[in-house]
Design brief:
With 272 residues, this protein is of the alpha+beta class. The protein contains four helices and 14 strands. The strands form five sheets. The protein has a four-stranded antiparallel β-sheet, with no helix packed on it. A three-stranded antiparallel β-sheet has the order 1-2-3. Strand 10 and strand 11 form a beta hairpin. The chain is globular, with a radius of gyration of 22 Å. The chain starts with a strand and ends in a 14-residue tail after the last strand.
Length: 272
């Protein structure tokens, strides 16, 4: 019997937004680099495509008046894997054993006659594609790095070379170091394409813990759960005349900060 690896609930049970439970199954989860980080490209996310390796089964919970509503909701929430995985738009390449899944914006991907084809977003192909070991070569990866997709109305989509490719190369170097090394030998210029995250906004819980961050209220130390301010700069102090004020703030999944150092960003970081 198959074992699900995650389940999420969607919809509030209203007439136009029926409740549904989506169960994710994957036979190769234990080989997946995303799964090991608590991430999965099969999790439903607006405007995203699903990983072709896993599959999703949806269970209709109907409206709040339906007998199935409570049954489907309780069954999902009682599962040990409820909400276990989250989607991450930050994942550009995922390692599954010796194979890979590419997930890139601004381009379409397809395999044709044993070669990887990387074209503009308006051509046939997919945003997310399974790449078997024999196709995962430095020559094919170079096509990803050198592509310059064009917008529908003309002009290069500059965000691809500026954001997508540097992020892709950063993850490739970690997940497939041998292929990355071979790629740099073939095209040394690719080594200079490093992502620049400073100024981007991201969820604090997905950034690097045990380091300092900055806000308009001063700098703070983040330990992975709380933010500690030594000098909390705010006009709302408990006394009219007093010295520096320290603060301990619990961080939630919705807490967002501006990245001030590239080293603060992890593979699991979620940008907003």
């Amino acid at each position: 019997m198959r074992e699900a690896i995650c389940v999420h609930l969607y919809g509030d049970g209203s007439r136009n937004n029926r409740l549904r439970a989506e169960y994710i199954y994957c036979d190769r989860a234990n080989e997946c680099s995303a799964y090991k980080q608590g991430r999965c490209l099969c999790v439903t996310y607006p405007f995203s495509s699903r990983c072709p390796v896993g599959n999703v089964e949806s269970v209709d919970g109907g409206t709040k008046r339906s007998k199935m509503f409570t049954r489907v909701k309780d069954c999902a929430k009682s599962a040990p894997y409820y909400g276990a995985l989250r989607y991450s738009s930050n994942l550009k390449i995922v390692r599954i054993g010796d194979d890979a899944v590419l997930s890139l914006s601004y381009v379409s991907l397809k395999i044709e006659n044993g070669d990887l084809k990387v074209n503009g977003p308006w051509e046939s192909g997919s945003k997310i594609l399974f790449i078997p070991k024999e196709i995962l070569t430095a020559d094919n990866i170079l096509k990803v790095c050198e592509c310059k997709p064009m917008a529908l109305m003309g002009g290069e989509i500059e965000s691809y070379q500026k954001d997508e490719v540097p992020m892709f190369l950063r993850q490739l170097r970690k997940l497939f170091p041998e292929i990355y090394t071979e790629l740099i030998v073939k095209s040394p210029v690719q080594e200079n394409k490093m992502p620049y995250f400073v100024g981007k906004r991201a969820k604090l819980l997905t950034l690097k813990p045990n380091c300092k961050y900055k806000t308009r209220y001063g700098s703070f130390f983040f330990d992975g759960k709380y933010a500690y301010f030594d000098n909390y700069d705010t006009a709302f102090k408990p006394f009219l005349k007093c010295g520096n004020m320290s603060a301990k703030v619990e961080i939630t999944n919705d807490t967002v900060v501006t990245v001030s150092d590239n080293e603060q960003v992890l593979e699991m970081t979620e940008f907003v």
